Amino acid sequence: MMQGGTQSEESGQPIPTVSRLLGGRSELWCGGGRAEMCARWSALVLLLVLLCVTVRRAVAVELVVVHYELLGERSPALLAALADAVRAVRAAEQHVLVLNAAGADLGLPADAHAVGVQSMGGLGSVPLVSHVGGPTVAANLQLPAPLATAVTASVTLELGAAGRVGLVGVVPTSLEAERAGGAVTDPLQAVGQEAARLRAAGVGTVLALGRLDGETALQVAQQLPGLDGLVIPGGLRPHAVYPLPVGRDAGGALPLLEAPLVAAPGYLGVVTLTLAADGRVSGWRGRVVPIRAPAPPPAAAPPVAAGTGFCPPVAGQVGGTLSELDGRIDSCSQRECSLGSTLADALLLAAVTPSASSWSEVSLAVLSAGALSTSLPRCAVSEADLAAAVTTNATAVTLSLAGIHLRQVLEVSAAGRGSAAFLQTAGVRVVYDVTRPAGRRVRRLEVLCSQCVTPRYEEVRAGAMYRLVTTSYLAAGGHGYRVLPRRGRAVADSGRPVRDILRHYLRSRSPVPPPTGGRVFFSGQDGPVSDPPARSPTTSTSTERTTTAAAAVTTTAAPPAGGTRPAETIGEALQSTSVSQMVLNSALWSLSGFFMLGMMITAFF
């Protein structure tokens, strides 16, 4: 036997062993007589270490990123609900980052805050750099002392098995930093340089956060290969996938954490990032949790207003009517119905925004027949009557839409006559010609003017912009109204369910009279339509009855292999790196490691 080797039975040539590879130094560890046995055990130990490293690299590490925003009110009850939701995620997950990408000062601690905006009334606004609990980050903002000490370009955190995570702040070029004696530099250059510096310092995962508009956010995501994710404020734009996968110029995809349109005054975005061994993001999945304050206890029902004294009071009364308000699906899916018109009037009244030169910027309202189920009785209306008549849980959303696309919305309604998709309106007069082919049935369309002090009906112009209030269900593309999320621009989400808006309308205006007619006409008629030829109405409205835009949006997304396709509904997933695939990869790594171990043991013993 040769020192540090053995001979092959066939060739007689020495076979290298670990003892030979160590240059015969195993005698220093174990003594000359036990050198060969010691070398074998040394090889076994090294192999076990290699196997542990292999298995550790095969098991994916998950990092949970939480970001939040309040879109309107900031009541103590709403802030408490948001804080409870954050605590619940921290308690349920192991590696959690809480980020305040909107930069608002809500008094909630976070691992990093973006620079916000503080209004100075008529003097404009200044950067908001002071936050409670956590650093404020901005790589492209230069401020004079002492404000400069409150902002840092980035922060690095140690998150155990998730490794080192760098958080880079960014502000939009529109930020009025000069009012505070500062300046805003190019976000692409500043964020790119800071991300590269963190990479050189050994940081595995780099995320950016800040108040960027959609176009700038896409440029940052596409052009900066050093980033693993980008977090921006959201909650106002309807889109089907969360997080949004953005294709990089250098290949692959990056998750854009922008929450979709939510029917609530606030949201909590929860995204789970799957990290590779080097810290880079290899996959993700996300969900959006609507944030609402607990409902206040119901107020005592007001007395029935004068003029309805002949109506006996009922338990849980919310108001009264002078006539039955027809909300039957077989009526509302064929023509304008009194309950549909009343609810549309209530939505429009709640969204009216008067100014010195305009009676209201929002001048029309539309909702689908699927939001209704049955009629409201004459006289006293109870809470039970209201719940039975208005079955949708959707909220009121204000959109801005071009006239050409508003006409397309009414074309969808014309094609959906006899179904839950048929529209009930306020501030709209439309003439349908059902003898024309689909897509050309709107013969005339008028809406109330918005740039006027006295409202009057005007012909819709293709290039003009109109603001309308509708339900969050339709705003997200429900009942086939895909033109709304694709062409509409979200202006405001009231967070108020349409049933609550009708309740307030009944309380404040009882006894409610029959609504004004003459909103929907059919070709050849001079007034509101009478019953059309008998058709089989589609009475199934379970989609809108059971679907609420306030429900949590759960989607899954991962870097696509060949680009992305648009999802048809909220909640449809894009996933190219699945959990099953990761489990299979882990199993293959482990099996290969054990096979190597068996071969080495056989060779040495």
From TrEMBL:
Pfam family for this entry, one:
5_nucleotid_C
InterPro entries per UniProt:
5'-Nucleotdase_C, 5'-Nucleotdase_C_sf, 5_nucleotidase/apyrase, Metallo-depent_PP-like
- Which segments show compositional bias classed as Low complexity? 536-550
Its recorded reaction(s) are: a ribonucleoside 5'-phosphate + H2O = a ribonucleoside + phosphate
Record EC number? 3.1.3.5
User: Which biological process annotations from GO are given for this protein?
Assistant: nucleotide catabolic process
Which residues does the UniProt record annotate as the domain 5'-Nucleotidase C-terminal? 319-484
MF terms from GO for this chain are: 5'-nucleotidase activity
Q: Where is this region: Disordered?
A: 507-550
Signal peptide as annotated in the record: none
Provide the top EC class.
hydrolase
Concerning PANTHER family, the annotation shows: 5'-NUCLEOTIDASE, 5'-NUCLEOTIDASE-RELATED
* Family (UniProt): Belongs to the 5'-nucleotidase family.
- What's the name of the protein? 5'-nucleotidase
Q: Which species is listed as the source?
A: Amphibalanus amphitrite
Gene of this entry: rla-0_0
